[in-house]
Amino acid sequence: MLTPSEHHQEWLAVAVEEARAGEAEGGVPIGAALFGADGEVLGRGRNRRVQDGDPSVHAETSAFRAAGRQRGYAGTTMVTTLSPCWFCSGLVRQFGIGTVVIGEARNFHGGHDWLAEHGVRIVLLDDPECVRMMAGFIADRPRLWHEDIGEDQPG
Known about the structure:
The radius of gyration is 14 Å and the shape is globular. The chain contains seven helices and five strands. With 155 residues, the protein is of the alpha/beta class.
């Protein structure tokens, strides 16, 4: 039987796989998956802003959409490679997703503190692979990164 932290690492691997696929497609390497209370993958997705030309297709929204309608979300867990932005944090709060497992928050500290203040259980793994993946992307493609997080960049 797996411990909760082993489940989290196993679940994070699904999100990392999505992030790598997005990077291979020329997009932003952020992946996510929504898991049911029983550990079943309900939906998985990746940031597809570049691929789809749609600024609203973040990893978490992609995973949420892939999961389809659910009767409720309180027992679900959103797993994401990077701390969720305000947009995705709003989705978690709006639908009452009970837990968010985050690969890393060093390269971007999104809205997870706010989520915790509002009763969402936050598990921050500080995963070295997630840190390296985002740091490399930000260094290689700073303009795309700043566009993704909604910040203007000079030049």
